[in-house]
Amino acid sequence: MCRWIAYTGSPVTLDELLYKPANSLVMQSRHSRLGAEPTNGDGFGVGWYDEHSPTPGLFRSIEPAWSDANLREIAQHVRSGTVFAHVRATSGTAVQQTNCHPFRHDRWLFMHNGGIGGFAALKRDLQVAVAPELFPTIEGSTDSETLFHLALTFGLTDDPPRAVAEAIGVVEDVARRRGVPFPMQGTVAVTDGDRVWAIRYSSEGRSRSLFHNQDVAVLREQYPDNPVLHGLTDDTRVVVSEPLGDLKGAWLEVPESSCLVIGGGVQEIVPFAPVAPA
To answer: What is the C-alpha to C-alpha distance for residues 238 and 19, in angstroms, rounded to an integer?
Structure first.
């Protein structure tokens, strides 16, 4: 469906994440190893935080990531310690800029790999559940943006895991009433620029792939001659749809039905389950 990367740690230029790794995100846009399809060419987006503004920068395009000259150009110059990037494979909605991830609301970025099954049949009920003051800010037509606005409705800015759990709970409740089995599929990433929450969940219990890096200090001991590892601080964390390379022991799978929480150089994995509406 899609591929994404969430990065927090030592400030790096975007090309260090998007182009330089052996299995970089741009490489995954053409030759995904673990995705539902090998090609993710229906647009891309990248969001980043810096000292110039309290809200993240955002660059999105409907061009395939591998052929966009503007992305290659800015990737060599934009530098950040918190980056979200996403390459899209549409599940049916239009290829347009407003449908490209990540989605932004004030300081918050949100991206999703997967989909809401039977979304066309569920869309009206789901969007009616979005808070009236948030509904006008839905710009595109994707299930992912609707899920983001449901999470915002349920308090994403106060408690992201709980808000996403309640949003998915509504999705599953509406789907049950509409006769749609296994509606939720995917991995979700949320950040406010300081912390990152990455959730892996599907109604069927067979979610899309998701990995995070082994501690840099551990890898540095195992590979003392690797120059890339010596250029990263110990608090660097990378969450990816699929590993960026083949370095043995570098990538750990995020368990099914769990939430990876990253902040202040510390990460933990906690159980995740939808919360049914009252």
So the answer is: 15
pTM for this model (two decimals): 0.96
What distance in Å separates the CA atoms of residue 251 and residue 43, rounded to the nearest whole number? 26
- Report pLDDT digits (tens) over 192-238: 999 999 999 999 999 999 999 999 999 999 889 888 888 888 999 99
CA 129, CA 101: separation in Å to the nearest integer?
22
Around Cβ 277, how many Cβ atoms within 10 Å? 12
Give the angle subtended at the CA of 202 by the CAs of 152 and 193, to the nearest 5°.
Answer: 40
- Please give the C-alpha separations between residue 261 and each of 40, 49, 264, 272, in angstroms, as whole numbers: 27, 18, 10, 11
Could you tell me the strand order of the sheet in which 184-191 lies?
A: 103-105, 108-116, 184-191, 195-202, 258-263, 266-271
Strand 44-48 relative to strand 79-88, pairing: antiparallel
Give the start-to-end residue ranges of the domains of the chain.
2-271
Q: How many helices (H) and strands (E) does the chain have?
A: 8, 13
Place of tokens 């979610």: 207
Q: How far apart are CA 246 and CA 75, in angstroms?
A: 23
89: which residues sit within 8 A by CB, 6+ positions away?
1, 2, 35, 36, 37, 39, 40, 41, 42
Homologous superfamily of domain range 2-271 = Aminohydrolase, N-terminal nucleophile (Ntn) domain (3.60.20.10)
100 is catalytic: no
Out of 2, 151, 174, 210, pick the active-site residue: 2
- How far, in Å, CA of 42 to CA of 57, rounded? 21
Compute the distance between CA of residue 150 and CA of residue 219 in angstroms, rounded to an integer: 39
Q: CA-CA distance, 118 to 205, in Å (whole number)?
A: 17
Contact 256, 203 (CB under 8 A): no
